[in-house]
Amino acid sequence: MEENKAKVIEQFSKNANSYVTSPSHAEGKDLSMIRDWLNPGRNWIVLDIATGGGHVAKTISPDVKQVFATDLTKKMLQNTANYLKNYENIYFVLADAENLPFLDDTFDAVTCRIAPHHFPRPDLFIKETSRVLKPGGKFLLIDNITPEDPELAKYMNGFEKLRDNSHVKCLSASKWEQLTQEHQLIKQKNNIHKKTFPFSNWVRRTTDKAEERKRVKDFILNGSSKALNYFRIEQKDGEITSLKVDEMMALFEKQHQ
Fold this sequence. Notes:
Elements: H1 2-14, H2 16-21, H3 23-26, H4 29-38, E1 45-49, H5 55-60, E2 66-71, H6 74-83, E3 90-94, E4 107-113, H7 122-132, E5 133-145, H8 150-163, H9 173-182, E6 185-198, H10 199-204, H11 210-221, H12 225-230, E7 234-236, E8 239-254
Helix pairs in contact: 8-11
C-alpha cells in the first residue's frame, strides 16, 4: 500500500503543472455543475480531498466561508497553492485521503474529483469522509468508473495501469454505492456520462517514453470487439485518436445519528 502511495507522489510531483492545465481536469461539464448540485451556504467549511490542480476548490471558494484543499503530494499542493494564491479563503493541507488530519463532524461538505482511482483503500477514504462530515453534510464524488461487466472493468483498469503506474483501480457505480451506504452516506443524486480523452494528450501526460505509449496503444487495440466498441476507440491511419470512459458524478448526504 505504501508503495502505491509512493508511486502517486512520484507521478504527481513529476506532472504537477500538467494537472493544472489538463483539459480533462481544468474543464468539463462536471465543474460547472458542482455549485448547482452542492448549493453551498455562505458559512460553509468545505474539504476538497486530493485537490490536484485545485479546480474544485477554485470553483466553490467564492460561495463558502473556507475551503481546505488537501493532497498527498507536497509538490503538487505547492504548485496549486501558487496558482490559487489570490483565493484567500482556500487553505492548503498536506493530507492522506485515507487518514485525514481533521476532527469528527468538522465539514459542511466534502468533495473529491478524478482522484479516488489512485487510492489503495477506497473503503478507508469513504470511512474518513463520513467521519469528518457533519450529520446532514454533503459529499460530492466525481471519478471515472468501470462498467459493471467484469471483462470490461478488467480491460479498463488494464490500460489505465499501463498508462499511469500510480493508478490503483477504478470502481463500478454499484461498488461506490455499497461503500457509501456502509458509512451512512445516502445517495441523493447521480449522473453517469461519457468522457472523451484525446489519446495523444491523455497518454503523454503520464508516460515518458515512446515505448510506454506503444504498450498502452497495443493493449487497447488488442481488446475484444466488445471492449473497442464500449470504449469507442477511434482510429486514423493505425493510430488511436480518442477513447471514451464513463465518469460518475454522485451526491451523498450523511445520515443523522
